[in-house]
């Protein structure tokens, strides 16, 4: 067995492992994991007019929704489109989260104003 054969076998073994769903963290900059049903065909899901990832787990289909940092807190919704069924909306809550901040103090000798950048 060559090194290439071993690498291929390892790759196939790793690829066969089930991938866990991400942690449900519905905050700006987070990921919402939303159960969307148990149909036999994969639904199409949109969040803010952007298509999102849909995966199948034992219990059914899940939408994996990336939430932009700029998204406001409160109720948000996804639109689920399934073959031969009317579109439906599923609401979820985007919760507030205070990210840790870092503040830098820079000596004025090292600060370049916008007027210097424009004239450069």
What does this structure look like?
With 120 residues, the chain is an alpha+beta fold. It has one domain: Immunoglobulin-like (Sandwich), CATH 2.60.40.1590. Helices cover 17% and strands 33% of the residues. The protein has 2 helices and 7 strands. The strands form 2 sheets. Strands 3-2-6-7 form a 4-stranded antiparallel sheet, with no helix packed on it. The protein has a 3-stranded antiparallel sheet with strand order 1-5-4, with no helix packed on it. The longest helix has 14 residues, at 3-16. The chain is elongated and about 65 Å long. The model is unreliable at 8-17 (pLDDT under 50).
State the CATH superfamily name: Peptidoglycan hydrolase domains
Q: Which regions contain 5 or more consecutive residues with pLDDT less than 50? A: 8-17
**Overall average residue pLDDT:** 85
Distance between the termini: 62 Å
Tell me the number of strands: 7
Estimated structural class? alpha+beta
Can you tell me the overall shape? Answer: elongated
Helix share bin: 10-25%
**From N to C, what is the helix and strand string?**
HEEEEEEEH
CATH topology: Immunoglobulin-like
According to CATH, what is the class?
A: Mainly Beta
Largest β-sheet summary: 4 strands, antiparallel
């Amino acid at each position: 067995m060559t090194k290439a054969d071993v690498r291929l076998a390892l790759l196939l073994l790793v690829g066969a492992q089930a991938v866990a769903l991400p942690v449900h963290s519905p905050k700006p900059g987070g990921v919402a994991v939303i159960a969307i049903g148990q149909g036999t065909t994969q639904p199409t899901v949109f969040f803010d007019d952007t298509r999102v990832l849909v995966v199948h787990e034992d219990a059914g289909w899940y939408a994996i929704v990336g939430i932009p940092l700029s998204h406001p807190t409160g109720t948000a919704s996804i639109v689920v489109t399934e073959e031969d069924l009317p579109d439906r909306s599923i609401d979820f809550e985007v919760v507030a989260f205070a990210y840790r901040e870092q503040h830098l103090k820079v000596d004025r000798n090292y600060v370049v104003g916008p007027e210097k950048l424009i004239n450069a």
